[in-house]
Design a protein that fits this description.
The protein is an all-alpha fold. The chain is built from 16 helices and 4 strands. The strands form 2 sheets. A two-stranded parallel ribbon has the order 1-2. A two-stranded antiparallel sheet has the order 3-4. A hairpin with a 5-residue loop joins strand 3 and strand 4. The longest helix is centred in the C-terminal third of the chain and has 31 residues.
Length: 407
């Protein structure tokens, strides 16, 4: 059933500020970490013999490790998203398996995940004690949330030394590009810009898209702003919400500075991930990801509401309202004619009797029924005295008239 937003498309209020564009330096730094889908099949791990499906699965496990440790440490979602971006960028420079040809050892994704989270807590200024981080990593790695870990445990020191050692390697691998703009902030700005920040269903669907994208390599294919707009695009299609064009007639994706083709490509990529290797066990969330022709006509986009359609619908509403008003006035006048005092109804009936429906007025019909004689006598039928009077006109020699009365 279409939602209320589908019936009444939303538009950006003039008082709402335009979503801020990212810093040019951040865009330049981010563009250096964007690849094509063909280039993602040439990562060091794949070149070392790992299959693409296995690499995607290992990346997902590494991000899942970050999420579980972050939940234990009660870290915000932005910090976890930053750590996942660090992990995906790291494995574009290093291999998960041993590369004998290059003489490089294998690097386990759990070790990288812990280091990425440690670095992200400092970048996003959500620092946690080193001891708390190490204890959480040990518990998650051994799948024992209640394990007692202290400084006397050898696992504690092994994880602590691994994180400190991998930090330098991670910084070198990401080229010290530590300033990131996670898509969560941009997504919230877009929701506020279109006045949909209180649409819980739309907001949750878009938020789920961004959360799931952290488990994939979507951050290596599209910019943070494109991912946020793709999340809004997928959620709007799922919730049947449309956004009105701006005053210049531009669609909403051009207003926020993204391309429709990139939005559709991102949605199709996430749909392919769910079709091939589901990250969730079905459910309603999987219906968010629907494939769309990347080169489809933008005039047929389900999330766009053109101003011509809005004006046409308003014109139809006005005409329908005018017709309804005239109909109500006619019904009111008919109802008023059927009501009123007895005198008014009698007067209306008399007025109706005066209308010459048969060609004769009321007076003419009365003259035919009762004829008044010159001497005042009646020639006709009288009722009310209990007698019937018949008159016959006779003429004598003097012109007098005689009447014969029968009892």
């Amino acid at each position: 059933m279409p939602s209320a937003s589908a019936q009444h498309p939303t538009q950006a209020s003039p008082s709402r500020p335009q979503p801020t564009l990212p810093n040019e330096l951040l865009l330049l730094a981010e563009s250096q970490w964007l690849f094509t889908e063909e280039e993602l099949l040439l990562t060091p791990s794949i070149l070392a013999g790992l299959t693409p499906a296995k690499e995607r699965e290992s990346r997902g496990k590494g991000v899942n490790f970050i999420l579980q440790v972050g939940i234990m440490l009660k870290l915000p979602q932005i910090t976890l998203a930053t750590a996942s971006v660090f992990l995906h960028r790291f494995f574009m420079r290093h291999s998960m398996v041993e590369d004998k040809a290059a003489g490089k050892p294998a690097i386990h994704y759990y070790s990288v995940a812990a280091t990425c989270l440690f670095l992200a807590t400092k970048v996003e200024e959500n620092c946690r004690k080193m001891k708390d981080l190490v204890v959480a990593c040990v518990r998650v790695a051994q799948k024992n949330p209640g394990k007692v870990v202290d400084e006397q445990d050898k696992e504690y020191w092994r994880w602590r030394d691994t994180i400190l050692h991998m930090e330098d390697i991670l910084l070198e691998a990401v080229c010290f590009d530590l300033s990131l703009e996670p898509p969560y902030k941009t997504l919230f700005e877009l929701l506020c810009f279109f006045g949909e920040e209180n649409n819980k269903r739309l907001r949750n669907a878009a938020w789920a898209f961004v959360n799931d994208s952290c488990l994939t390599m979507l951050c290596l294919l599209f910019s943070s702003r494109s991912i946020a707009a793709s999340a809004l695009y997928a959620a709007a299609r799922h919730c049947e919400v449309r956004f009105l064009d701006d005053a210049e007639g531009r669609p909403w994706w051009e207003t926020v500075g993204v391309e429709l083709r990139n939005l559709r490509r991102a949605c199709n990529y996430m749909a392919g991930i769910y079709e091939n290797t589901p990250l969730r066990n079905g459910g309603e969330g999987s219906s968010i990801y629907e494939r769309t022709p990347e080169d489809g006509d933008e005039w047929l986009a389900k999330t766009r509401e053109r101003r011509q359609e809005r004006e046409g619908s308003r014109g139809r509403e006005r005409s329908e309202g005018l017709e309804d008003g005239l109909k109500r006035e006619r019904e009111a006048s008919i109802g008023a004619s059927m009501t009123g005092s007895d005198g008014e109804r009698k007067r209306r009936r008399e007025e109706m009797d005066d209308i010459p429906w048969g060609g004769d007025t009321k007076e003419e019909r009365e003259d035919k029924r009762i004829k008044v004689e010159p001497n005042g006598s009646t020639n006709g039928v009288e009722h009310g005295h209990g007698v019937e009077v018949k008159a016959e006109e006779t003429s004598d020699a003097n012109g007098s008239e005689e009447g014969e009365v029968e009892p």
